[in-house]
Amino acid sequence: MIYLQYYIPDNAIYYIKITQGYDVIETRTLQLFLHLADSLHFGKTSAAMHISPSALTRTIKKLEQQLGRPLFERDNRSVSLTYEGKLFQEYARDSLLHWDSFCNSLMEKTQALQGEISIYCSVTASYSFLYDLLSTFRLAHPKIEIKLHTGDHANAIDRVLNNQEDLAIAAHPGALPAQIEFKRIATSPLIMIASSQSPLKEINIDQLTPSQWHNVPMILSEEGLARERVNTWFRQQGVTPTIYAQVSGNEAIVSMVSLGFGVGVVPQIVVENSPLSDRISALSPQATLEPFQVGLCVQKKRLQSPLINAFWQILPAQ
Q1: pTM of the model
Q2: Going residue by residue through the chain (318 aa), what tens digit of pLDDT does each one get?
Q3: Alpha-helical runs (H) found in 141-274
Q4: Which of 76, 109, 142 is a domain's end point?
């Protein structure tokens, strides 16, 4: 039987111990396990969590001994979770979530929330939306530390689902996973662009035949919502596009388009906020691509945390 034991030492830093019989599992162990369960790489976890590889190995072995079950399958080439490891992963996530909520509820009574939350977004979203959100949040909760990670917007919702981030700014995929809550921030059309110095800017989308489209080099996202929508549009037109490049991130598409390498498809807000906007032209007329609904997303159960809920509440529902 596993149960929780809370204690508060003299220095008022809160800890949790999860005990099974007479053995003790501390929050640090759970955090190390969860990071390794996500990374599946001892070297990456040891570096990210500031622990030596040998100490990490000893911690995981001790945890497996306490539980009486192997949590990882490992050899010289790979690491993977066992069935028991996957079960314990859910347990560890829920345990830390409950503990964080308990600690934060104590701080909430003093009206001084403390701790950290992680947020993921694209570079464009960081200066298009995040500045205003953080400015408001910082004034209300100056003691909460923000950890910001940027990257391809296509990964945003998955990073929240996988507990890599607390919140993310993402495009609504049309059908949200059941675990995700979403608040809209803005709407941005999805547009086709070309270099303002390239003859490609003169393309008339309505007049191109499928065979003419074959001569247009396309620069598209490797994956994600924009790629899905442009793929759907090309199928509807009976066109097999010629793909010059597949890249990660809208900003990279704008860069390649500005150099005249081809026609790209990006949300309009990316072009508007790009330092290369004066080198880009939107094709006219535009393809009838469904616009992006951009918003803040979070796992519903994570809203139990006062810290995460405090950030969620700064954005009014639309």
Answers
A1: 0.65
A2: 333 333 434 333 333 344 444 355 688 888 889 889 888 999 889 888 888 989 999 999 999 888 888 999 988 788 999 999 888 888 888 887 777 767 666 655 556 677 888 999 988 888 888 888 888 888 888 888 888 998 888 889 999 988 889 999 999 998 999 999 999 999 999 999 999 999 999 999 889 998 899 899 999 999 888 999 999 999 999 999 999 999 988 899 999 999 999 999 999 999 998 999 999 999 988 888 999 999 999 999 889 888 898 899 988 766
A3: 156-161, 210-213, 225-237, 250-258, 268-272
A4: 109
Residue 141, domain CATH: 3.40.190.10
Does a structural domain hold residue 103? yes
Residue 217, domain member (yes or no) = yes
DSSP type of residue 7: E
- Count of CB atoms situated within 10 Å of the CB of 165: 25
CATH classification of the domain holding 64: 1.10.10.10
Exposed/middle/buried for residue 1 (C-beta within 10 Å: 0-12, 13-18, 19+): exposed
Domain of 269, in residue numbers: 190-290
With respect to residue 318, please indicate whether it lies within any of the assigned structural domains. Answer: no
Contacts made by residues 271-277, CB under 8 angstroms, sequence distance 24+: 271/191, 271/193, 273/124, 273/127, 273/128, 274/124
* Residue owning tokens 């003169």: 202
Q: Identify whether the C-beta of residue 85 lies closer than 8 Å to the C-beta of residue 71.
A: yes
Indicate whether 15 and 105 sit together in one domain.
Answer: yes
Residue 74 placed within a domain: yes
